[in-house]
Write the C-alpha cells for this entry.
Amino acid sequence: METERVAILLTGVGKRYDIVSAFARHAFVIAADPSPLAPAQYAADVRVAPPRVDHPGYVPFLERVVAEHDVRAVIPLTDLDIEVLARSGLPAFVPSPEVTRATYDKYEAHELLVSHGLPSPPTVLPGEDPGGYPVVVKPRRGSGARAIHVAADREQMEFFVGYSEEPVMVQRLLRGPHFSIDLLCDLEGRCLNAIPRSMIESRGGESIKGTVVADAELVELGRRVGETLPVRGPCTVQVFRDPELGIGIYDVNTRFGGAFPAPMYAALPGRTYPELVVRMAAGERIEPHVGEFHAGMTFTRWYWHTELDGQMQPTGRDAVEGGPRPPR
C-alpha cells in the first residue's frame, strides 16, 4: 500500500541519522536542530535551525514550520523538549504534560510506576533508608548514564550524595539480564507493539549491541507500561531481571531509544515504527499487533561521517565508495 507522503517534523535530531533517514523513506521530513553541524539533518528533505529549547521563541518557531509545511506529526528525538511539546498544542506524538514531566524526573517516574502497580526497584531520596545495599546514586534528571555511582554501604552512599552537585536519588542496584523494550502507542494510548531486546553492550547509556528476543513477559510489561501511563508515540522501557527482586523498571524514556534499529529489523513488513507513525499522521487508525515481530535479529552500531563543502552542503563523497558493505 502506498503511504501518503505527509510532512513529519523531527526535533533535536543531532546524530540520529538512522531515525531521520528511516522516516525520510516514508514521509517528507523536516529536521530541526539549533546546531548547523548536526549530522542527522542531512538525511531530511528540509533543514531548519530553531532557537534553543529553553528560548521563548522555540515553540513559535516550530509553529511557523508546522504551518508552512502542513506538518501532521512532530516527533522529538531527545528528552529536552518532550514536555515543552506536550504543552504546546502542536501535533506532537508525546504523552500528556503530567506523564512527560514525571518520566523526565527519575524519582517521579518511580513514584508513577509504583502508583500503577508497575515494578520499580526500591528507590528513596537522600536522607532516607534504602532498605539494603548495594545501591546506585544517580541524578534525578538527565540521560546518557551520566554521573551514576554504585555504593556498597551507607558510608559510600552518603559520600556520593554529598559529592553530587545536582538533585539525586538512591535506588537499589539491579543485577541480572538487562533488557530494553521499544514500544509504540497511538494517540489514544493503545499499545501497537512492544519489542524487547537484550542489552549486550552499552556506551554512554545507549545500547550499541543487542538482540531482539521473544520474551512474552517483557512484551506484556511493555504493553502495560504503554497503556497504563499512558504513552502516546514511541517509548523505551529499560529493565533488569534481577535474581532477587525480579523484573525492575529503572527508566522510561518517552521517545525513540538509542537502539532504534532493533525494532526496525524486527518489525513485520509495513509495520516499522516510522511507517506506523506516518500512517497515523495521515489519519489511519492502526490496529494493535503486540508481540508480532521477528525475534533473533542482532544489531551492532557503528559510526560514520558526512563531509560538507564550503557552503555547508554534503559533498556526496564517502571514505568507502558505496558505503560499508558485507564482507565478500
